[in-house]
Description:
This protein is mostly helical. It folds into two domains: 1-33; 48-91. It is 88% helix and 0% strand. The protein has helices spanning 5-33, 39-67, 69-90. α2 (39-67) packs antiparallel against α3 (69-90). This is Major facilitator superfamily protein.
Amino acid sequence: MKFPFIFVLFVFSFNCFLVGKFNPKFSATLMTNVPDNMLAQVSSFISFLVMISIPIGTSVFSMIYVFNSNILWILFLSLTIIGLYFQVESQ
C-alpha cells in the first residue's frame, strides 16, 4: 500500500506535535514527584524501558503479523482505545 506524500507528512507532523506536548509535561511531573537524589536513576530507568520496548515490540508484532495481519490491526486498535481511555480518565 502506497500512501501519498502529503498524508505521510501529516502523520509525521502530528506525531511530532504529540511528542512535543507530552515530553515537557512528563519531565515536569517527573521532577515534581521524584526526590532530587533519585531523579537521575528514575530518568535512566524510564529511558531503559523505552529503549528495550522497541525490539521487544517489534518482535512481538512481527510474530503476530506472520500468523494473521487482521489480528495485528485489531490489537493496534485495542491498544489505542485503551490508551485514549486512560488519558481521558486521568484528566
